[in-house]
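Long-time lurker. I teach an intro course on protein structure, and each term I like to show students one example going from raw sequence to a predicted 3D structure in token notation. This year I'd like something fresh instead of my usual example. Would anyone be willing to generate the tokens for the chain below so I can use it in lecture? Attribution to the forum is fine with me.
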Amino acid sequence: MFKFLKGVVGGSGAGIKDLPYNIGDPYPSAWGSWSHFHGTSKDDGSPVSIFSLSGSNPQDGHLAAGRNGVKRLRTVRHPNILSFLHSTEVETLDGSTTKVTIYIVTEPVMPLSEKIKELGLQGTQRDEYYAWGLHQIAKAVSFLNNDCKLVHGNVCLASVVVTQTLDWKLHAFDVLSEFDGNNEAATGSMLQYEWLVGSQYKPMELVKSDWTTIRKSPPWAIDSWGLGCLIYELFSGLKLGKTEELRNTASIPKSLLPDYQRLLSSMPSRRLNTLKLIENSEYFQNKLVDTIHFMEILNLKDSSEKDSFFRKLPNLTEQLPRQIVLKKLLPLLASALEFGSAGALALTALLKMGSWLSTEEFNVKVLPTIVKLFSSNDRAIRIGLLQHIDQYGESLSAQVVDEQVYPHVANGFSDTYANLRELTLKSMLVLAPKLSQRTISGSLLKYLSKLQVDEEPAIRTNTTILLGNIASCLNEGTRKRVLINAFTVRALRDTFSPARGAGIMALCATSSYYDITEVATRILPNVVILTIDPDSDVRSKAFQAVDQFLQIVKQYNEKTNLGDTATGASSVGISSIPGNASLLGWAVSSFTAKGKPSDQAPIVPASSGTHVTSATSNASSDTSSTAVLRVSSSTDLTDQPVPVSPTSTDGWGEIENGIHEEHDSDKDGWDDLEPPEEQKPSSVLANIQAAQKRPVSQPVSQSRTQATSSRPKNTGKVTKDEVDDLWGSIAAPPPKTSSKPLNGKPSGSLDDEEAWASIAAPEPPTRVRPLASGRGRGAKPAAPKLGAQRINRTSGGM
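-- Reply from a regular --
Happy to contribute to a lecture. Here you go:
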């Protein structure tokens, strides 16, 4: 038969003219005279099954029965009956003989006998799978007998096939006929093609062709007998040879034995209706049948039943046959999630099942569902996806992440639910390496800029950690523009001590990206300040960082002394300090640990490193002491000439006062922050007054002469808000300043290099001076700030 089909196809690959499918290799067995082949669609290559039946005479009885089977299969539709796709009849000439071949194309299936060998199930798992299969065939037979009043006539192992999802389906409809028991005038054969059925599968009344008795019997009498034959062949593993073998019940499960005996009753009227078998049999009550049945009617269950089921499902799948779980339950679960009938709890079970698949199968069966779920509006679904992103993130392609996943994930950055914002932030550790530079620069960094001033301290901390971990994903220009400003201007001045510690660790982990000028003028001055931080952990990290960056400077000095200055302006970073060699770890979430957000305080409180919730309450009590620390650091650095950094004119460079000053530019994501609250004037006044009490040991002219000879002069005019710009010399080039002499006498020339000029209070002006721009960055007008008021009040107090 196979050679004949190959001859029909002709080896050209085009296939039969009227059959839009390609015929593949045959299966070893099939029902009756039919042959069963693998096949594929010529349109899209999708798999199908192709059945063929040939005869040399167009009036051959086998062909007539085959045509009856095609007609019945086309018209009878049921979930447990083989799905019909296409059929055709072809005539070919073999010498002087005409051969007719009937083709039926169906969904891809394989014979049950072959699938049982392939699965190799044993013990309880085998019995559970057999119970599920028999349950499906019993429903198909019940549908034919009770609903359609049809008689299949040949239910047996060969008439059952198995789909790719391991469902059992009934086929072989060649003998199928209407049950005409109500037709009293009928006298002939009710089953026109009953001669195709082997005698071992016939009940006694059919063997004797006692059509009167058959018509008086219930419609299910013949097929109930056939179902008993199927049960025998299934559990014995043997093909039924003669009717007497049905008496051997040793292999039949005890819970099924009473129903088996009733199916094979010698009296047709007493045979068990297959509908009763489904409803009452104890054998069908097992975990596999109950689980699959629940999944199939999931839409009819209420939310509490669904939640209870999906909580148990991950553990339940461990006890079920693995192949059935992957090929039957997994597609059902994926479909339920896609169409919204399953909630977020089902994600855990889906991903657990997916972990048992190969990479290729996971990408085909699970990943498409996950990608679709990212567009869900259900917050619980989105949280579940982000919580488990480490399980599937590596399988997502860069194109899918950039075009389909990230646009939906990014909505979580601005969500009002803090836990979702944090999970979105953490997911970027997996997704960011797959994003394009355009998406990173145009979208991701803008969101991270806002998260660095989030009301939740854990989010601010984890934003810094994320930037340190994804620094390698940024291009060189973006790194120059973002990293130092993010870590020093913001992280190191955060009110939350773990955030300051994260800033130090991030600087160390990314040390290879900074040149020697940035290390000496922008990183070390900021880190040294934290060696006297109120928090011991921050101090410890600060000392380690100082050692690391001093080592970088020493290495540069050694190379310079040896005449090797070629790398002077290039990166001279060394390996990170111990503990920073790998990815930075996430900070403890304030939502899970404390459950209470911390308000952003204007200054670092002395006890802020102890508790998340105490950052705000302790801010006012420690304002004075910490203000001295911050002003002092500004004083020491303002006197030194700072080379112009490439970051001084970009979005990050505009942030001179960290999160406490309004930004002037919208060039990139680090400029679109909300203006934070102003510092309290009392702390600054206290610092200015403390500085003014320092004795002046030199005349102004001598001090001016020494300063002029030792440092280059700046010729700009100071603005009144320079007193507030405590970190301007770190985040950007030094402002050009001029100050009044401490002795109150008018000065003949500008003196902006005096050591304490940045904190000493100038003499009250005799006339109102215009607020000119003194930031050294162009002609941007400076908005009036509290600095001018502070100076006036201080002067009046003096």
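Some talking points for your students: Strands lie at 21-26, 35-41, 47-55, 84-94, 97-106, 109-111, 150-151, 160-163, 168-170, 177-178. The chain has a mean pLDDT of 76.
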